[in-house]
Design goal:
Elements lengths: L2 H11 L4 E6 L3 E7 L5 E8 L3 E3 L2 E3 L2 H23 L9 E5 L5 E3 L18 H11 L8 H10 L10 E3 L1 H10 L3 E3 H4 L5 E2 L4 E2 L1 H11 L8 H4 L2 E3 L10 H7 L15 E2 H8 L8 E5 L3 E5 L21
Parallel strand pairs: 1-6, 6-13, 9-12
Antiparallel strand pairs: 1-2, 2-3, 4-5, 7-8, 10-11, 14-15
Length: 311
């Protein structure tokens, strides 16, 4: 065997690698990279959303079977290529379709089917919140879905304990941590660029808006914690390890980075994170992202605002 081959085996066995898992609209992909950021092995799982009761959604069963299948194919590739079993890695990170609506109750149960970014059912909420905040709130944003559900007087609203996104949900199940990367969080609720956290003034406005509803929670009670790239976002629990790797080989204790959205991963992949840089994404949807030097002076209907993974 070559020296390089033996070094790769040694790196895998000793955890000098990192795992990235992306949940896209049509494919879930798991990639193992080495310390030079070069791919070592990958696995993918094709899936499609379903239109159920006028909602574009993915079931929890499909989410977990897809993640597990993607991971197992990557782990199987490691075994086939190098003859070793993947048990540890240096870090794990998740990214997924941004926006959408996942709300959970005190019993950690999903209160309503996952509503993806494809749903355009929050027009009234979007318009009201854009005017309230003087900040563009697209229909697919989590806060628009939440307020529309309040306007619709949906039964689950009073039971909400935690609101998150797809990537945030996966991360929470594997670590127990209710966190989001700042880029992903910026598709949930507006971010204060000075603090790199949710905008507290806008949170106050929202709480005042829903005050007459007499709900048992305030928005700041149910939002996840915002983290920036490089911050530790928890560790893989024993239960999380078994959930990700159904063979039971993967060990607990692996650190995870903040879960991000597909816009953020696109920025990193194309090195478009500095001001005056940008990229174009041609995936399920086509859009351009430009990194601004400062905040816009007002809301523009044609421009959505998100942050880079560093805020």
């Amino acid at each position: 065997m070559s020296l390089e081959f033996n070094e790769m085996i040694n790196a895998i066995v000793n955890g000098r690698t990192a795992i990235g898992i992306e949940l896209g609209s049509t494919r879930i992909k798991t990639v193992l990279i080495n310390t030079d950021n070069k791919p070592v092995a990958s696995g993918s799982h094709d899936w499609e959303n379903s239109y159920v009761n006028n909602i574009w959604t993915y079931s929890l069963e499909n989410i977990w079977s897809g993640v597990q299948d993607s991971y197992q194919k990557m782990a199987g590739s490691i075994k086939e290529q190098f003859g070793v079993t993947l048990k540890i890695t240096g870090a794990i990170g998740f990214s997924g379709m941004m926006h959408g609506y996942m709300v959970l109750g005190k019993q950690k149960n999903l209160l309503a089917p996952f509503r993806t970014w494809r749903n355009n059912i929050t027009c009234q909420a979007s318009e009201t919140l854009t005017e309230l905040f003087n900040y563009p709130i697209p229909q697919r944003w989590s806060i628009a879905h939440l307020y529309q559900a309040i306007l619709n007087q949906e039964e689950h609203i009073s039971e909400i304990n935690h609101i998150t996104t797809l990537a945030g949900y996966i991360h929470w199940k594997l670590t127990g941590q209710k966190v989001l990367g700042v880029g992903e969080a910026s598709g949930m609720f507006p971010i204060d660029l000075d603090t790199r956290e949710f905008n507290t003034e806008m949170i106050k406005r929202f709480n005042q808006l829903i005050g007459p509803k007499n709900l048992p929670w305030r928005l700041d009670d149910i939002l996840p914690k915002v983290l920036v790239a490089g911050e530790k976002a928890g560790e893989l629990t024993a239960e999380g390890a078994k959930l990700l790797d159904v063979t039971g080989e993967l060990q607990a204790g692996i650190p995870l980075c903040p879960p991000e959205g597909d816009a953020g991963t696109g920025m990193v992949a194309t090195n478009s994170v500095a001001v005056r840089t940008g990229n174009v994404s041609a995936g399920t949807s086509v859009f351009a992202m430009i990194v601004l030097e400062k905040e816009l002076s007002r809301a523009y209907d044609e421009i959505d605002l998100v942050t880079t993974p560093s805020g």
